[in-house]
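Reviewers of the previous submission asked for a worked example of the structure-prediction workflow described in the proposal, so we include one complete record here. The input consisted solely of the amino acid sequence. No template or homolog information was supplied to the procedure at any stage.
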Amino acid sequence: MSKATFRERSRYWFDNTMSRGTAALIGWLAVISVALIVVVSGLVLWLTPVEADKHHGVTGVVWATLMRTLSPGKVASDTGSAPFVALMFVASLGGLFIVSALVGVLANGFKERFEQLRKGRSRIIERGHIVVLGWSDQVFTIVRELVEAHASRRGSTIAILADLDKVAMEDALRTHVGDTGRTKVVCRTGRPVEPADLDLMNLDAAGSVVVLSPQGEDPDAHVIKTLLALDKRAGGHPPVVAAIASTGNMAAARLAGGPAVHLVDSDDTASRLIVQSSRQSGTSVVCMDLLDFSGDEIYLRSDPSLAGTEYGRALSAYQTATVIGLRRAGRVMLNPPMDTVIAAEDEIIVIAPDDSMIHLADGMPKAQEDAIVMVEHDRPGPERTLVLNWNGRGRQIIRCLDGYAAPGSVIDVASDHPDAATGVEGLVNLTVNVKDCETTDRYALESLGLGVYQHVIVLSDDRYDAAHADTRTLMTLLQLRDMQSTLGERYSIVSEMHDENNRALAEVTRADDIVISDTVIGLLLAQLTENQHLAEVFGHLFDSRGSEIYPRPANRYVRAGAPVSFATVIEAARRRGETAIGYRLADQVSEAPHFGVVLNPDKSRLVRLGPDDCVIVLAEH
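From that input alone, the workflow returned the following structure tokens.
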């Protein structure tokens, strides 16, 4: 390598100074301006001594040259000899280029500065705030629910860090969430995996952190990388809640985030809810009601005054709260045996509209013995289930169904998806068949002979984007609804969709249940942000082992049409080893937002439950 020449060194030095930004550019323009003024002033003093004397010597000439340089228009008023006018013209011409360049440099510098200000690069100084890392459609659900939860709390703050324009994020939140009331929402532009960007969120003082799966390919890789960045950073580590899209990545996410991270398995949770809803109509509505903050929620409460009381006796202990289980030594028990004795250190799991409304009743309400009936539940036999469309969640759904179905049950997958029903070997109770079908075509659907099925599940086709997949699902649901009306067939229909806004459109189809998978995960993340211990509770609710939510015919518990208190319903369920948490009215199943579901009713309020109404219980299947 030859030695660098003086010209190369000079150019290299000049390039380095120019790369320092707006200040360096202004500095070079100042140097050029000074050089121009010095040269022109020197020539005026040398070549035009008469005009130099008229301008009072060196000082006056320098001032005149400076004015021509900064204000080129002044040259029009110059008089004197030709050399003097020519030199002033040169100064004005050079000044024209210098001023133009200065204006351009300043405009560009201000633009860059404003762009930086738009990104919001100042460090957040809040304390106890909730930090959301990443951006997806779930962010709107999470922010909306946290705003609802913090409606009565002053100084609440939600801070969002994502690799998007700050103003664009704020506009999207205003459009989808609206007024946030007392809760302040702060957005920052940055990458959640960069330590410098994480420092902007003041994580040492944060109350909790939510990590979202970004939209696009391989979202779990981004979540895991963010968990690694959070685990490796110095300073305090607030509780972290994260959503993992694929069950297969859960082990890697646990290793990346450590034991303190609460992970939500999106595929598994949505799959279990779809399966439970397909078998028991109304299950998804009940779960959504428990997950959102607008109605009743799940709380853990220590109440030593109930120590020594059997669980079955404590079911009616609260007037405006419903007992559903116990948390003992860190282990959750939903609907435990009725003779389980409550210990002083146990936490009681209750459903209540607010933690301030959890109070022991003055006295245990009396059950109406003459209204209680004990009709045995039907034991389900082999069933046929039809799955329309296919996506990566389909395998999990079939495996979950295998845990519920009676031996000899059949599931048919009708789809033109190339991966339909692949990877579902080793089933115990189910036989799986695959049928090629264009699920939006009426004649193709009729050829399936839907009358032989008890349950139909319509999945979202993952070959299309979310909006198009929802449109195809709506078309399929409309065809099914018309076929039911025309042929007089009856089978439960559960549909999976992406966009909550499409639910109102889907209600026209009168599907039994519509599971908005992204909304469910967003609601669950919001709940865990407020109380990480609820992860175990919801994990049990969505698990086929143990007790789950079941809407069951009310006439198997109380006399149809008789005015009964909810305390009577609780007692009727208790005698079966079940925990009653509410009921569903058949004549209101199409009325949003609760679709006939009433959770945690007042124990003494009378209600008439007809033969088509349901009692919602926690029970083993």
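The chain has 20 helices and 22 strands. We consider this example representative of the routine output the project will generate in years two and three.
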